[in-house]
Specification:
The protein has 413 residues and is α/β, with parallel strands linked by helices. The protein is built from 18 helices and twelve strands. The chain has two domains: 278 residues, Rossmann fold (3-Layer(aba) Sandwich), CATH 3.40.50; 113 residues, Rossmann fold (3-Layer(aba) Sandwich), CATH 3.40.50.1100. Helix content is 43%, strand content 14%. The termini are far apart.
């Protein structure tokens, strides 16, 4: 039986918490899950990504003042805002999947196995230029695919839906991609990208998976797992909880997969965090099977505005995602502002609107006695969150936070 409740309905601080009755720390890592994400796959992804120009591990910030304010022992924030200059963790997924695709297709073209290093070095420019990749995006994934396509020498077309900002469209175009705006929501743009690719002979590099399209999203997720491995390696003591924002769920599944394979039954408790206006994981956990949500999905957390969960992510989070929360846009704005104006010596952090649902979920849960009890949160809890983007839309960031990202980074009052 599913345990669920809602607090503060109709207010900015409203949230819904739903426990996943299918999950448990005693659930094994299965062969089917290992076929999606594995230690061998992670080793290849780390070796490839670490060889790209500009690679550096992103910082893991300790936030002791905020932890004390919330009433927990420790809070760690993995800050992806500077990843490869793209402003988000997505560089690890989309661009990595482009290299994997190019290695496969170039091998066919030249009649021998092409290495990942050769792809990175653009060893076969004429053959690479004949290949076009495409995807649908809310912004960050498309920027990553476009960046990878430019760096590795192939063509790129990106599909965006009606509510993606002009700032994000321009940022994708800066990497040389053609950008096409579609009617409808994110899921509509996914379908249009697939239909166009089938017609034109292009290759879809998507961060979500669906019937008939499973292999490339595995590479995207395997790239994301590099971020999790970096964070876990940097922690002297494992976290007791991980709060993760969810769009289609690829990032959350990748982090969770690394936690399960690394720690087994001693893994942290995993809490997924949806925008309440696109809460596909909440509906899925309620139903016990992938369940879409309809409508325009017009949440401020645009990178999470997805109505359908990834089939691959469900394969992992069904067993290992312990709970899901749905949170308001206002709670995300509050988290952005709190990070930008820290107290007690915590570092100032620039976090975009799609970066902070995990933190917002932690704040909401710690403010409610029943949520704390159900999630086993207390004074001894050590919580990890992932700040998955910086100011990927600088104008919107300044509007929401009340100061520019440059001022935050510079420590302006």
């Amino acid at each position: 039986m599913t345990t669920e409740f809602t607090r503060g309905a109709g207010t900015d601080a409203a949230f819904t918490l739903c426990l996943n009755p299918l999950a448990g720390k005693d659930k094994p890592w299965t062969a089917e899950q290992d076929a999606i994400l594995s230690d061998a796959g992670l080793a290849l992804a780390r070796a490839t990504v670490s060889g790209w120009p500009g690679y550096a591990e992103t910082p893991l910030h300790a936030l002791p003042a905020l932890a004390a304010e919330l009433g927990i022992a420790a809070l760690s924030y993995k800050d992806e805002g500077a990843r490869f200059g793209l402003g988000s963790f997505k560089a690890l997924g989309g661009a990595y999947a482009v290299t994997r695709l190019l290695a496969k297709e170039l091998s066919k073209a030249v009649g021998r196995a092409v290495t990942m290093a050769e792809v990175t070095q653009v060893a076969f420019p004429e053959e690479a230029a004949k290949i076009t990749v495409c995807c649908a995006t809310d912004g960050n994934h498309g920027r990553s695919v476009a960046w990878g396509a430019r760096n590795f020498g192939c063509g790129c077309v990106i599909f965006i839906h009606a509510t993606v900002s002009e700032g994000r469209k321009t940022a994708i175009e800066a990497y040389g991609a053609e950008v096409r705006r579609c009617a409808g929501n994110y899921d509509d743009s996914v379908r249009e990208a697939q239909q166009t690719a089938t017609r034109e002979g292009w290759f879809v590099v998507s961060d979500t998976s669906y019937e008939g399209y499973m292999e490339i999203p595995k590479d995207v997720m395997q790239g994301y797992e590099v971020m999790a491995a970096e964070a876990f390696d940097a922690m002297a003591v494992p976290p007791t909880h991980i709060f993760l924002q969810t769009g289609v769920g690829g990032m959350a599944a990748a982090v969770t997969a690394q936690a399960v394979r690394r720690w087994g039954a001693a893994r942290p408790l995993v809490v997924l965090c949806d925008p309440d206006l696109s809460a596909c994981w909440l509906e899925t956990m309620r139903a016990g099977s992938p369940t879409p949500v309809e409508g325009d999905l017009d949440t401020l957390m645009a990178g999470l505005a997805c109505g359908e969960v990834s089939a691959l992510a469900w394969e992992i989070l069904r067993d290992h995602g312990d709970a899901v929360m749905a949170l308001t846009d206002a709670s995300a704005i509050a988290a952005m502002r709190r990070l930008a104006r820290p107290g007690g010596g915590d570092p100032a952090i620039v976090a975009g609107e799609s970066a902070v649902a995990g933190l917002a979920g932690l704040v909401a849960a710690m403010g409610d006695p029943e949520a704390r009890r159900l999630l086993s949160l207390g004074a001894d809890s050590r919580v990890l969150v992932f700040g998955t983007e910086g100011d990927t839309d600088p104008a919107l960031y300044e509007e929401l936070v009340g100061r520019s990202a440059e001022a935050v980074r510079g420590g302006a009052a």
